[in-house]
Amino acid sequence: MSSLQSKNIVTCIILSIVTCGFYSLYWLYCIVTDINTISEDPNAMSPVLVIILSIVTCGLYFLYWVYKSGSLLDQKMVETGRTAESRPILYVVLAFFGLSIVTYALMQDTINKLAENDMNKPSF
Fold first, then answer.
1. What InterPro entries does the annotation carry (predicted)?
2. 3-state SS string over 55-114?
3. pLDDT recorded at residue 1
4. Is residue 60 a contact partner of residue 51, using CB atoms and an 8 Å limit?
5. pTM above 0.90, yes or no
6. Which terminus has fewer CB within 10 Å in the chain: N or C?
7. Residue 12 burial (10 A CB sphere; 0-12, 13-18, 19+)
8. For residue 15, what pLDDT is reported?
9. Mean pLDDT of all residues in 82-100
10. Closest CA to 6 of 100, 107, 77
11. Residues contacting 123, CB < 8 A, separation 6+
12. At what angle do helices 100-119 and 9-18 cross, to 10 degrees?
């Protein structure tokens, strides 16, 4: 997980609002890339494909992807010795009700924790 970098969640939210949602597409691209890195399979899912399928399926694919990614993030939190946040269902519910930006923020928070944990690991 060497290429994980923490992102400032407040800045991402503000940029998403100011750019009328265009930055949120880039933020989603970054989240998908980070989750691929966390899964240790950088080619697991193309970030562009996630965005396109989410748009084409009117958000149905996004709900599926959010659930699967939330489960993976929970699993990685347990593997790093942290408590699982049990958020996959919360991510789906938030996204279903149009609060995807909150889902992004929660996912980014977990990614930031995993990036922090990765930085604190001793190198041999």
1. DUF4234
2. HHCCCHHHHHHHHHHHHHHHHHHHHCCCCCCCCHHHHHHHHHCCCHHHHHHHHHHHHHHH
3. 47
4. no
5. no
6. C
7. buried
8. 97
9. 93
10. 107
11. none
12. 150
Residue 121: burial class (beta carbons within 10 Å; 0-12, 13-18, 19+): exposed
Treating both helix axes as pointing N-terminal to C-terminal, what angle do 100-119 and 88-96 enclose, rounded to 10 degrees? Answer: 150
The per-residue pLDDT for range 51-81, each reduced to its tens digit, is: 999 999 999 999 999 999 999 999 999 998 8
Q: What is the pLDDT of residues 35-52, one digit of tens each?
A: 999 988 877 889 999 999
Residue with tokens 């399979």: 41
Burial of 105 per CB tally in 10 Å (0-12, 13-18, 19+): middle
